[in-house]
Amino acid sequence: MNTMSRTALAAVCFAFAGLGLSPLAQAADRLIWQPTKLGENGLHLRMGVKLPVAGEASAGADVAVAATRSGRVEDTPVDIWARVTTRNGTRTAVATSRSIDGVFDPRGGTGHLDVSMNRKRILNASLDLERSRGVNLVCSEHLKRCDNIVFRQSARLTAVATGTAVVAEGRYAPAKLDVSNIVRVEQQITRKMTVTAALAAPFKNDRQASIGFSYAFTW
User: Which of 77, 93, 153, 159 could form a disulfide with 122 if both were Cys (CB 3.0 to 4.6 A apart)?
Assistant: First the structure.
């Protein structure tokens, strides 16, 4: 068995090892099994288990397989992931959620940790305000260090009646002394159709404007 196969097998074992944490974890509703087809010869599989702890917690592995037309497997990337989320005030005018997401690539020895908080407030019958902030940290087992820290925050003001939203986002990467921000207006046409006008780097001379259109559908 080659290294790639051993890595995939280890990820599978990790995903299902959590089933023994508690008898409740053996229930079918705690299993995560989400296969997704990627093109004609690709498959992505998210598998794991919802952990019996306070809040919402889950862990498992993502496995992707890509093959040529002849059936030869080209690559099998594997990521081990974990997620913890807590929610407060979901039935009040102010709802807050906090989450921690971690992903580790056992083949490359790299991973990242993302910590975020989101707060949504009903200002009045016409307006909703949503604010979020977070930090993302990338670590390397081989380099024995964590770098590429990125801080981010955003605010969204939405008019409930018209579906119009004004959004401001900002990011800061200390290692590169890079500050980026964007302001955009989103107009919801239907439940699945949205038109967006955005202005990147609005406080710089090289600001860039764009208009986008998105439509969501399932099949």
Answer: 93
| Predicted local confidence at residue 143, as pLDDT | 63
- Which contacts of 90-96 are long-range, i.e. CB under 8 A and separated by 24 or more positions? 93/121, 93/122, 94/119, 94/120, 94/121, 94/122, 95/119, 95/120, 95/121, 96/120
Q: Which residue has the higher pLDDT, 84 or 108?
A: 84
Say how many Å lie between the first and final Cα of the chain, rounded.
38
Amino acid at 115: V
Strands 42-50 and 31-38: antiparallel
Check residues 74 and 156 and name the one with the higher pLDDT: 156
Would you tell me how many other CB atoms lie within 10 Å of the CB of residue 184? 19
Q: Are 132 and 151 in contact (CB under 8 A)?
A: no
CA distance 11 to 206: 46
* Of 69, 72, 66, 100, the residue nearest 85 (C-alpha): 100
Burial 71-108 (b: 16+ CB within 10 A, else e): eeeeebbbbbbbbbeeeeeeeeeebbbbbebbebbbee
Q: What is the pLDDT of residues 132-179, one digit of tens each?
A: 999 999 988 766 778 789 999 999 999 999 999 999 999 999 988 889
Count CB-CB contacts under 10 A for residue 8.
19
